[in-house]
Amino acid sequence: xxxxxxxxxxPVESESFKKFVDQQISNxxxxxxxxxxxxxxxxxxDEVERLHAEAKRLYGNIITEDRILVVDSLLRLIHCDLSNxxxxxxxxxxxxxxxxxAAYKDQAEDEQRELIDVVYEASRFExxxxxxxxxxxxxxxxxxxxILEKIKSGYENQEERYSNHIELKEIEKKDPQLFAQEINRxxxxxxxxxxxxxxxxxxxxxxxxxxxxxWQMSIEALKARYPELIxxxxxxxxxxxxxxxxxxxxxxLVQAFSRDLTKRLxxxxxxxxxxxxxxxxxxxxxxxxxxLEQKSKDKAFKEEKIYKDREEPWWKFWWWFRDKKELVGxxxxxxxxxxxxxxxxxxxxxxxxxxxxxxxxxKEVLNDYLEYFSKEMTSVITVRQRELEAEKRKKQSNEQIIxxxxxxxxx
Length: 411
Hints:
The protein is mostly helical. It has 13 helices and 3 strands; from the N terminus they run E-H-E-H-E-H-H-H-H-H-H-H-H-H-H-H.
């Protein structure tokens, strides 16, 4: 969930932290990064606050300020000892603990507070734990919110359908002949809506096709950016970081493409549906576009394990000596530059294979998605039409109709 980079608060400037961020962790991982400055108990409060502010100034462009935190781990360990009923005398047997504990023992006596409370407060762990907990619950909370919205939308759709059903039964109660006409009207309107959704499908397909589409331009941008970064990397760590960033960028583009497709189709259906509902006074069938999106994306980007015969890496080579020297054995020598060059070549080969395949993969997603959409929409409309025909054939007395209306109201 998170990366915690721990560093002494003094000196606050850290080349190792900058190098770690610049050369080792991927851009996406920056979003999960915390900088924990420790050993704060060794310095007065005003000095700690000054160093904390300086760290925020130095690293504010790398990491958000609320994730630059100050703690003292030794004080937290002393707090754990006190919580486990270890005596102060026993704690003082450790020279490190004895040295730092003295000042806080005096503070506790001066302020007439419990030593355990003073030590825990000075450790500053409460603030850090709170921040990490807030971070770790953020993603699940957003997911729960999305699920809640889905459930809410489903209930709204059900409520609309029940209301329409009640209206239909009220017509049947008053005038059976008008009821049959109303069912025919709705049946024909649904047939018309089916044609409209097919047209919507074709419009969306046209919008996403062609070499000049924004998605093709995004793919070209990927081709231009990451091969240059991978080729210019001067260490294995930097190349590995750029490869990870490139993989994340491709994954993000795939996600953005499928999300945009769902958004575009949803907006088009909403526009068509609103006009249609106003004109025809019926509730229109809805389908789960998110589920179709995931299904079509999974199919196109399905991962398969591929096995092949193991081969010796080509950078393993052997030296042998001639010129009056007898060959007595062989030795494998590791060459870092050779390793780096090979890594770049393999990474670029793999990257181009994936990025060059994207246009066809996007086309697959688009075609499968719209095909699933067409079948699903036809299916739900057909089911609705059959239900209406069943209603028309069902002969009920007024008492039975009234009882059915009451049951629908309960639902």
